[in-house]
Amino acid sequence: MSAGERLRRLEEEVAERSLQALLVTAPANVRYLTGFSGSNGLLLVPAADGGQALGLDRPLFVTDFRYESQAEQEVGAAAPECERAIAPGELTEAVSSLLSERLSSPSDGATAARLGFDDRDMSVARHRRMAELLEQAPVELSACGGVVERLREVKDEQEQRRIAAAAKLADQALSQTLAQGLIGRTERQVAIDLEGRMRALGAEGASFPTIVAAGAHGALPHAQPRDVEIRAGELVTIDWGAILDGYCSDCTRTYAAGRPSEHAREIYELVLAAQMAGLQALSPGRSGRAVDADARSVIEEAGLGERFGHGLGHGVGLEIHEGPRLSKTASEEPLRAGTVVTVEPGVYLPGELGVRIEDLVVLLDDGHRNLSSLPKELTAID
Fold this sequence. Notes:
CATH class of the largest domain: Alpha Beta
Number of strands: 20
CATH superfamily of the largest domain: Creatinase/methionine aminopeptidase superfamily
Largest sheet: 6 strands, mixed
Low-confidence stretches: none
Order of helices and strands: HEHEEHEHEHEHHHEEEEEEHHEEEEEEEE
């Protein structure tokens, strides 16, 4: 799907919400709609039935001087229908001033134009400043967080290919890292090695700080790699991902450094059973809450439900954490084909060990496709 098609879908959504335009400020949303990969840009998208009430006849992309050439290349190629402007200073202030200049003061009894903004992204201070600058213009600011994110949940074929390519690259990098062994290396050494190999294979970077956690440290779901050597007999949880062409991957595997204890094997097999149950339950039409419940019940029946405290999974795309969610508190709304989500149950025993197994999957009309290729049986790595 082209950026132009995405813009048209959003223009229709803006009209359905009785807005005259939507101000898009979150970088991932701006990139999704325009192809712009810089760090400072925003987009004004008029409603499909016209944004004339705000002086707009087509989408307006705004950035600063640093990105003038980049915007010409990226936005000009991906979304040529956008008007482009270079603004001095803070962008939301520049857009507010621009709208004030284009609009005349409202006459008595005139209805103010409704300008939507992303209240999930915009700070209170920026909103206050916009309201001040638009005070004399016939504009009403309307909170509309999540509109673009909802469109982004369903990935088109090109997006799916990019995420699959990022997952393939990340899997290759870990295979190379594991070939160097685990025992005697520090968690930090393994993490640095893995991230370097992803870069060497063409990744723009890691999609999040790599987690390498051995032994009792694995009981921390978001453990930070330490300058501590991995010892024989420990389980080692590795959670990693790559960014390629702007899209993220996410995967977790837990390995045995040498020969694991029988207790460690039992916990591992329990988590694997829960992960397989989650995958089996995953299909369009089911809710994220229901899928989470199916996987979680496996761990709860083993008496360790309280040791699985996070959600089963989340969407992945331009950002590492997107909708939809798979969790106890997730929406009851049915999952849709084209969404890409993780399935990652875990059991964390403080002072002992942790196990997490995670795959990245895309939902299809008749089930799902697994983008994670590495084996999931407990593997010993010396």
